[in-house]
């Protein structure tokens, strides 16, 4: 059932029923329904473009309004369950970015970073990406104080016990502010308008905690720090008129002063919660989009401007933007794709039930292996650390290997609530398996091993650092392609092998 096609020339050998581009609640739900309809969908989950596989929920702390979870569930946990369900029913999940889609021919052609696939129908669930402020010093302090993901970076040692700021007035911003209270001494909520747009329940939670200070009518002009290449130390703000809710609510309709006031706010971190931009650039000129970049669909349906192409989730939703509505639209897209294929006699069902069952079993085995890798990275942390073993966990193992091993050491820094970390672990685990016995891999939880993370200068997760002969030889932040990790590893593992051969010959 593999859709792994080696090169463009081979694409004519197989045409998929449906390809799903994107993940999240919309993409995974579409995959579940398409799989149950025996469409054998190929799902390009994405990797680095438009966020991590699983979508925006991978950066969400608590989901309290998704049916079936009376006690709530974290965004990453919910996406793990949806992903596993899609895989169990036979979806082929490909953790790669789609780089090009050609809708000028039929079957449609989808090109990713490592393969080319043809399909009779497409379901587009590429979602949206968190917006940035674009302040002058944003690039300078990105990952050194400025972040768009509180649950990814909030646990970093540089933020512990410090005052932090969140910009935005909607549910996302307020949720991030409340989450950051786990680590911060105080959180300043910077709201551009004279009121917060969040739900009443979320606003009530903010009001109930005195550690959250709300600044209305306030915008961020820039960030500042000390020495070049150092950490962010504060924000330069501009406020107009009253900034406190009490003052604004007590004005009784009197005209408020528009006097502008510039002031500095010393904070160690700035987190964005200012909305999202739809990930539709790939389809400009091929499908109809609205002025904001959202994909246009026929009212009440997932049908785009091209027959056989369906869209769902936050890519089309300009109003609700909820996990449950995204999931519902994914269901509609899958059912619509199935009907389109049947009505146009395009359904491919050339595999018998036994072959399908065998493929499902293979997917289940892969899912089980990935789950194990995601849970622990395949790492071990025993009292007796074996310096000859490849995988380890914890600072004790890292310190021992750092001082006693001459192999390359890859150290992955993770955090308990980090959604992108969960996606990276199985990816990195598979890469490390290729170098078993030739290098070391150590997983460090920055909450449990705060001291080692601080010494390593870790300011966010996921982060992978590489050490050789007690020197740092590389660092990769975020989730990267497997080939990027291989390229860096090969520079040092192969170099070590060459050196060993030279010594052997000289001896």
What's the CATH architecture name of the largest domain? 3-Layer(bba) Sandwich
Biggest sheet architecture:
7 strands, mixed
Number of domains: 3
Helix content range = 25-40%
Low-confidence stretches: 1-12, 351-360, 362-378, 500-507
Q: Find the CATH topology of the largest domain.
A: FAD/NAD(P)-binding domain
- In whole angstroms, the N-to-C terminal distance is 52 Å
Percent of residues in beta strands?
Answer: 15-25%
Shape: globular
What is the CATH class designation of the largest domain? Alpha Beta
What value does the Rg take, in angstroms?
25 Å
Number of helices: 13
Count every beta strand, where a strand is a DSSP E run of 2 or more residues.
22
Provide mean pLDDT, rounded: 88
Helix/sheet category: alpha/beta
CATH homolog superfamily of the largest domain:
FAD/NAD(P)-binding domain
Describe the model.
The structure is a single chain. The chain has helices at 24-36, 75-88, 138-141, 150-153, 171-180, 200-207, 245-249, 323-343, 353-376, 395-404, 419-433, 450-455, 482-506, and strands at 15-21, 42-44, 92-94, 98-102, 108-112, 116-124, 128-130, 146-147, 163-167, 186-190, 212-215, 218-225, 232-240, 260-265, 269-272, 276-278, 309-311, 391-393, 408-414, 439-445, 463-468, 471-477. The chain is α/β, with parallel strands linked by helices. It folds into three domains: 8-129 and 277-369, FAD/NAD(P)-binding domain (3-Layer(bba) Sandwich), CATH 3.50.50.60; 138-272, FAD/NAD(P)-binding domain (3-Layer(bba) Sandwich), CATH 3.50.50; 377-506, Glutaredoxin, CATH 3.40.30. Helix 5 links the parallel strand 9 and strand 10. Helix 5 runs parallel beside helix 6 (200-207). Mean pLDDT is 88; it is low at 1-12, 351-360, 362-378 and 500-507.
């Amino acid at each position: 059932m593999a859709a792994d096609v080696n090169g463009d020339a081979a694409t004519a050998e197989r045409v998929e029923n449906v390809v799903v581009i994107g993940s999240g609640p919309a993409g995974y739900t579409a995959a579940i329904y398409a799989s149950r309809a025996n469409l054998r969908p190929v799902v390009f989950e994405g990797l680095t473009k438009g966020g991590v596989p699983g979508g925006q929920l991978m950066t969400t702390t608590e989901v309290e309004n998704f049916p079936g979870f009376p006690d709530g569930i974290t965004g990453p946990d919910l996406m793990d369950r949806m992903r596993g369900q899609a895989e169990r029913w036979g979806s082929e999940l490909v953790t790669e970015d789609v780089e090009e889609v050609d809708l000028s021919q039929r079957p449609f052609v989808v090109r990713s970073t490592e393969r080319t696939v043809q399909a009779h129908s497409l379901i587009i669930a590429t979602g949206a990406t968190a917006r940035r402020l674009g302040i002058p010093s944003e690039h300078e302090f990105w990952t050194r104080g400025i972040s768009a993901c509180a649950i990814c970076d909030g646990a970093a040692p540089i933020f512990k016990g410090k005052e932090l700021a969140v910009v935005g007035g909607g549910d996302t911003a307020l949720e991030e502010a409340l989450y950051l209270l786990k680590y911060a001494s105080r959180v300043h909520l910077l709201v551009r308008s004279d009121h917060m747009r969040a739900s009443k329940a979320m606003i009530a939670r903010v009001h109930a905690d005195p550690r959250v200070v709300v600044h209305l009518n306030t915008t961020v002009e820039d960030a500042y720090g000390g020495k070049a290449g150092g950490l962010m130390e504060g924000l330069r703000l501009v406020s107009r008129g009253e900034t406190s809710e009490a003052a604004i609510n007590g004005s009784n309709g009197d005209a408020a002063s528009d006097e502008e006031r510039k002031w500095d706010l010393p904070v160690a971190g700035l987190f964005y919660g200012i909305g999202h931009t739809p990930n539709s650039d790939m389809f400009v000129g091929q499908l109809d989009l609205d002025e904001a970049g959202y994909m246009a669909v026929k009212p009440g349906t997932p049908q785009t401007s091209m027959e056989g192409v369906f869209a769902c989730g936050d890519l089309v939703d300009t109003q609700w933007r909820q996990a449950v509505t995204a999931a519902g639209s994914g269901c509609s897209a899958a059912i619509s794709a199935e009907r389109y294929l049947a009505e146009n006699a395009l359904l491919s069902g050339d595999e018998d039930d036994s072959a399908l069952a065998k493929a499902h079993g293979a997917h289940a085995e892969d899912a089980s292996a990935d789950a194990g890798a995601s849970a622990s990275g395949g790492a071990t942390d025993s009292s007796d650390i074996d310096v000859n073993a490849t995988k380890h966990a914890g600072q004790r193992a890292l310190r021992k290997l750092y001082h006693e091993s001459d192999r390359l050491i890859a150290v992955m820094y993770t955090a308990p609530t980090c959604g992108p970390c969960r996606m990276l672990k199985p990816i990195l685990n598979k890469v490390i398996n290729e170098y078993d016995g030739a290098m070391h891999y150590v997983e460090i939880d920055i909450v449990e091993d705060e001291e080692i993370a601080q010494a390593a200068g870790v300011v966010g997760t996921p982060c992978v650092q590489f050490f050789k002969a007690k020197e740092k030889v590389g660092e990769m932040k975020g989730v990267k392609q497997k080939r990027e990790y291989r390229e860096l590893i090969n520079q040092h593992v192969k170099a070590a092998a060459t050196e060993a051969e030279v010594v052997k010959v000289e001896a």
